[in-house]
Write a structure and sequence with these properties.
mainly alpha
Length: about 250
């Protein structure tokens, strides 16, 4: 009976993108089984890019590049050491660069980050656990796991549109991490970097990666084991960011 059930499951048509999108939230295990059987990444990748672009473009429209630059200078403490003329010059130069940077980041950040994460996942599964995953499968799992960021983008858009632009911290606009609740001008940079990194959606993303890669190898490696591998790499990244924040 088990063989027959498996054959029937293999013969079933793959779920639609919408079914997979909902399944990531309500039944990730079964959804990743389907993704592993018929991997695809184009639509979830595009949705992830559009979600990121929506946040960055809305931030530019509502808060403005000049206010974002001013906020950054004030939070770093550099604004207090500048004359009014120096501050104005820094704002003028920074505004042009920031606008271009945010446009490009909104477009390119998601695919670049997901490619790196998929590559790390492939390295973990094939080099560490001896699996034989293909990159297409790893990238599909990563792109679908990233769909939780769409919910994060919705929360960010609501915050940006409803909050006072003068009060909203453009570098951390959503209350999904402890860093949101600390004053960036009064909190040490390394501590703020750490608190901001402890984000609900980052942990959720890694948990989904654990489930997805585990299902891709028929659960020969436990989801918790894969999650801990990603978490270990994430801890290293957080420590690097804290070190850079300390130097800054």
């Amino acid at each position: 009976m088990g063989t027959v059930s498996t054959e029937i499951a293999m013969d079933e048509p793959p779920k639609s993108f919408l079914q997979r999108f909902v399944g990531i939230f309500v039944s990730p295990g079964a959804t990743f089984v389907d993704i592993g059987r018929k991997p695809d990444f184009v639509v979830p990748l595009i949705v992830g890019i559009l979600a990121t672009m929506a946040v960055f473009e809305t931030m530019l429209a509502k808060i403005g590049a000049e206010r974002i630059v001013r906020q950054s200078l004030e939070q770093s403490g550099r604004a207090s050491n500048m004359s009014p003329e120096q501050l104005q010059q820094a704002l003028e130069q920074g505004t042009k660069f920031t606008a271009i940077f945010m446009h490009l980041t909104g477009l390119l950040a998601t695919p670049l980050v997901l490619l790196v994460v998929a590559g790390l996942g492939l390295l973990i599964m094939n080099a560490l656990f001896g699996s034989r995953l293909e990159f297409k499968t790893a990238f599909s799992i990563t792109c679908y796991a990233n769909l939780v960021s769409v919910l994060g983008a919705v929360i960010a858009l609501v915050m940006i549109l409803l909050a006072d632009p003068e009060q909203l911290n453009a570098q951390n606009p959503v209350p999904t991490n402890p860093g949101f609740f600390f004053n960036p001008r009064e909190t040490s940079k390394p501590l703020l970097s750490l608190l901001s990194s402890l984000d609900v959606f980052t942990i959720w993303f890694m948990a989904l990666l654990g489930i997805g890669f585990s299902e891709a190898v028929s659960r020969k490696v436990k989801p918790s084991t894969i999650f801990l591998c990603f978490a270990g790499l994430w801890v290293i990244w957080v420590l690097v960011k804290m070190g850079l924040a300390m130097l800054g």
